[in-house]
């Protein structure tokens, strides 16, 4: 953090720092406020965005109900009839890098007919994610999950397992299998991951909640 502040201080053509989407509890808030007080810069805090989350710790039964709701069970049971159905978390960097190429291509296709094209269209963004894999996967701070159906990877989730929380970050699914709701089934497994490992919550970051269970459309 000190290095970041030193770099910012060396830039002459600015006088205001704006906060956006930083949790109030983050240590970054106090650090930036202290930096502004010391340097005479002005701190502006913008209105935050309400973000959905699923609290796990202390509400385990509720989380289990969310993960085993009737519609979720129906979709999961249909997929697991396939001999090639499995959900797994990538653990080796080389394997994750190989899967990333398919994941990013799938993400590009998923968003190609929308008003928000995939960020993976840019090679610089793809390389940034590869660097995240190299840096964070060996530390256990990256959770890169694959859902296979009939031996084909039809959904992914690229997120972070950090600070006793699982952070929902970048999901994708194959549009050809949208009718099977692979994202819903993948989410079920991520909730179960949190339960099995005693995580405090599944944080969905920026997004609009679509149900009382705190889930969002993927």
What is the count of β-strands? 8
Largest sheet strand order: 3-8-7-6-5-4
Please outline the major beta sheet: 6 strands, mixed
Termini separation: 33 Å
Please compute the radius of gyration using only Cα atoms: 20 Å
Strand percentage lies at 15-25%
Describe this structure as you would to a colleague.
- The structure is a single chain.
- The chain starts with a helix and ends in a 15-residue tail after the last strand.
- The protein is built from seven helices and eight strands.
- Helix content is 40%, strand content 21%.
- The protein has 218 residues and is α/β, with parallel strands linked by helices.
Observed structural traits:
disordered C terminus, 218 residues, 6-stranded mixed β-sheet, 7 helices, alpha/beta, 21% strand, 40% helix
Concise synopsis of the structure shown:
The chain is α/β, with parallel strands linked by helices and 218 residues long.
Break the fold down into its secondary structure elements and pairings.
Layout: H1 2-9, E1 16-19, H2 27-39, E2 42-45, E3 53-55, H3 60-67, H4 70-79, E4 86-89, H5 93-110, H6 123-136, E5 142-149, E6 152-162, E7 165-173, H7 182-197, E8 201-203
Parallel strand pairs: 1-2, 7-8
Antiparallel strand pairs: 3-8, 4-5, 5-6, 6-7
Helix pairs in contact: 3-7, 4-7, 5-6
């Amino acid at each position: 953090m000190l290095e970041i502040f030193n770099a910012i201080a060396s830039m002459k053509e600015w006088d205001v720092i704006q906060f956006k989407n930083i949790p109030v509890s983050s240590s970054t808030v106090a650090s930036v406020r202290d930096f502004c007080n010391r340097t005479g810069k002005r701190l502006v805090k913008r209105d935050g965005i309400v973000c959905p989350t699923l609290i796990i710790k202390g509400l385990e039964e509720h989380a289990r109900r969310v993960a085993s709701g009737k519609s979720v069970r129906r979709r999961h049971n249909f997929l697991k009839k396939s001999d090639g159905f499995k959900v797994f978390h990538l653990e080796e960097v080389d394997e994750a890098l190989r899967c990333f190429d398919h994941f990013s291509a799938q993400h590009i296709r998923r968003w190609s007919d929308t008003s928000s094209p995939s960020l993976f269209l840019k090679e610089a963004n793809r390389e940034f994610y590869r660097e995240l894999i190299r840096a964070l996967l060996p530390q256990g701070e990256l959770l890169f999950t694959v859902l296979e159906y009939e031996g084909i990877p039809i959904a992914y989730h690229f997120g972070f397992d950090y600070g006793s929380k699982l952070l929902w970050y970048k999901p994708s699914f194959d549009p050809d299998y949208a009718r099977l709701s692979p994202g819903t089934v993948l989410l079920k497994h991520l909730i179960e991951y949190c339960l099995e490992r005693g995580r405090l919550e599944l944080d969905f970051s920026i997004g609009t909640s679509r149900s009382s269970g705190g889930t969002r459309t993927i």
